[in-house]
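During the reporting period the student researcher (J.K.) took over the structure-prediction task from the postdoctoral fellow and processed the backlog of single-chain submissions. One of the processed entries is reproduced below for the supervisory committee.
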Amino acid sequence: MKHKDNCEQLFEYLRSILYDDKVNALQIDDLEPAFEKLGKGMQYLEQAVREMKEYSAAISVGNLSVEAPPRENFLCKNLKNIHANLNHLSWQAKQVAKGDYSQSVSYLGEFSEAFNTMTKQLKEREQYLKQEAEREKTHANMVESYNQLLIQLIERSKEDILVLSKDRQETLYCSGKSLSNSKHREIYEICRERLAEKLAEVEAEENACECEWEWEEQVSDHRYYYVATGFMEWQGEKAYAHIIRDITEEKEREEKLEEKAYLDALTGIGNRNLLVGKMKEFLEKSEKFVFCYCDLDHLKYINDTYGHEEGDWYLNHFVDIVQEQIRKKDLFARIGGDEFCIAIEECDKAYLRERMQMIQEAFRTRVERPYLKDFSFGIIDSFEFPVKASVHELI
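J.K. obtained the following structure tokens:
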């Protein structure tokens, strides 16, 4: 075969590698010895291009579980970076879906700005909805109160209704429930006592017999009641009606929601909301305390290399070690992906630094992993704080 034929065959092979779905095979034995090495190199290129095409095709349709080509394939280096970034971005999107609006992207150009704007708007929207819900709740309570006190709903109300005479505090009406029932008897007796106390307080005031108020009470079996009490005429006698509603389940739901609002879902310790609230209390009390900020190293590398489950273990491992060295009453919160804060009252700065160094050593060495485990920290004493410093400024 002539040189020209060899060149044409190799050129056709290269064209087929780049453009054909099914590459025409190259017969090395048909080439002259001088062209055999080049032919073998082009066969290596064919394999690399095929791997790159298959890899990019999988990523282009969102298959992030696809296995990356081997390290020797130099054509896929940038694709692997994109793959890792997409994996991390998917995890961040899931975190945002869970309500973690601290997630931010800084490595994807214009998309980073769009993502960060989205999380900011979601956070603002959530705050707005919370405010709207609070306003609705206040309005609903007001409407409910006036309806209970001004409209006769005795026969169709699901609440317990207890009517007591003003002068004697005797029972004039009970909404069909037995007074001997221990579940109700205690709250009924408390209503009687509260009415006597209230009337004694306002006895000298003008129109004292026509007062109305709302209150909550917890009884001995740990049940909670909301009570609206108001003056009324009952069959020609001055009386007070107590509209009693069992709000135990509502209280339990509120407590669970409040707990979620102030706890980090992954680690179970406090979150940024808790930190800001508690630190404001510390600053307002102006008492001695020490504040420590921690930043874990290598979290993104661990997530990208070993997966996010390993990254979660890394975070929880750090939390476990810190909790061994601080008291339950000390403030410990996760304020970002790999950022944590500790605040301890009546503590010496040098003592906390020594503690943090012990935590750092335990974190580095206690459990063997195929990567480095470490974190940075900084400590400031309350006496060093600027006047009227905010939590953000302290961090």
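The committee noted the following: The two ends are 75 Å apart (CA to CA).
J.K. will present the remaining backlog at the next meeting.
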